[in-house]
Amino acid sequence: MSDQKKKASTLADKIAVSLQYDGEKAPIVTAKGSGHIAEQIIELAREHQIPIQQDPELVSLLSQVELNQEIPQVLYEAVAQVLVFAYQLGEKSPPQAKQTPPPSS
Q1: CA atoms within 13 Å, Cβ hemisphere of 88
Q2: Which of 33, 34, 53, 71 is most buried (most C-beta within 10 Å)?
Q3: Phi/psi at 70 (5° precision)
Q4: What is the pLDDT, as a whole number, of residue 84?
Q5: Nearest 5°: phi and psi at 15?
Q6: Which residue has the higher pLDDT, 47 or 100?
Q7: Are 51 and 89 a contacting pair, CB within 8 Å?
Q8: HSE, side-chain direction, 13 A CA sphere, residue 49
Q9: Whole-angstrom Cα distance, residue 89 to residue 5?
Q10: Cβ-count burial of 38 within 10 angstroms (0-12 exposed, 13-18 middle, 19+ buried)?
Q11: Coil, helix or strand at residue 32
């Protein structure tokens, strides 16, 4: 297989998903795509120094979530591990969920 065909095959297989997490609700899928769109998502992440994690199985599952929708509960643990990775790389703390005080008696 020629280098050009390998590159085209690799590009066609590339998938990327972007998540947003504010600490209030479940992470939201903010961008997703394959091929050239995936490359653009990855390039924008690099330009904005957003950590990138490669996990083909998780990306495949996340790519099934509609844009601007929260991830399903079944993916919380896997995505939490990605968020820990991202915050550690960025040397930042994750956003804290607002604590609701217990009701007064």
Answers
A1: 7
A2: 71
A3: -70, 150
A4: 87
A5: -130, 140
A6: 47
A7: yes
A8: 5
A9: 35
A10: buried
A11: strand
pLDDT band at 101 (very low <50, low <70, confident <90, very high): low
pLDDT at 103 over 70: no
Higher pLDDT, residue 43 or 98: 43
What confidence tens digit (pLDDT) does each residue in 26-79 have? 999 999 999 999 999 999 999 998 888 899 999 999 999 999 999 999 999 999
Integer CA distances (angstroms), 49 to 22, 70, 74, 102, in order: 18, 23, 28, 39
H runs (alpha helix) in the chain: 3-13, 36-47, 56-62, 76-89
Amino acid at 14: K
Question: CA angle at residue 86 from 11 to 13, to 5 degrees?
Answer: 15
